[in-house]
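Database export, one record per block. Field names are fixed; values are copied verbatim from the stored entry.
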Amino acid sequence: MTMNSSATSGPPLGASGKDTSNLQQETGRVLSRNEIEMMTGTIGRKSVSNIDAVNCDAIIGENAVRTRRNEWKAVARVNSGYLEDVSDDEEMLEVPPIEHNYTQMTCQVELTAEEKILKVASVLGGLTLTTKGLMSDLIEKGLRLLTMAATAPNAEAMALTTQDDASEALVFPIKNTIRASATTSAYEIPRPLINLARSKVHILLTLLTTASIRRIHTDPSCVKMKKRLVMDDPKRSIMDTSFRFPIETSLLPGQFNEAYKNFLKLLAKVTDKSIVQEFREHRDFLMECNNFNDQFDTILAFDIEIRYKYFNNHTLLDEGTYKQHWNEVKIDTKLA
């Protein structure tokens, strides 16, 4: 009991073992343990603050706060006549010599566009790989736009010069002039028909007669352009072959060879010579058929199928299948 009494007698010690015997009211009453702990909770306790050592305003502000805190502690003491000295752990910070005015900038440097982009790029190290990739693309695009802006006047001048040169160039140079051997071959294959072939669209033989070719050249209003006729490219505009031209089955026997010559010319502009030769042999086979005029319906139907397969499916029949299909078409035509 004696040891316990002596161990708990008197006020408890403060933080770091400081004496709290002077924390006694004028009445002589010893403060309770809770009261003393509340008052001495910060005595001798070291407070850590992160202060910028080169920021004068931060240091001065921190010193002012500590001064007010120490004054409050002094006033809060029970013994109003007691003034506690500033602890070692709360000594004032030394203000570094002021060589520059950090609060006022007398000169502001304007960054260039490239420097701003590089400054943004400097923070990429803390970003994810995906974000890095996006930022890298944006920076590259920005630099490219800056380069284009710097060279735009020169590019514009070059474009104007090119346009002037083009406007002064000869439209009909002698090297492009064609000497026709007869009036029937005066007109070349029209551009709209070539575009049909390049679009892999079946071309009617009625469009390739001499009369039709002359009409396309001399009366452009007969050519109607239309979209959504090409399956692979619905937005492409090509000639509407159903507008103001006769259907293919209306072709006459006497027009077949004439139209086929122009068809072979057209074919030579869009395919290999070997393919042109196969169609030439196909034409010769049909022209040599017995009773050509009497069998013309069969000949024309068979030819349409052969050309249709090639332009729409890029397919040609082998020799055995070719002859077999020719016989099938002859039978079908007779039955019809």
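Remark 1: The mean pLDDT is 76.
Remark 2: The chain is about 50% helix and 0% strand.
End of record.
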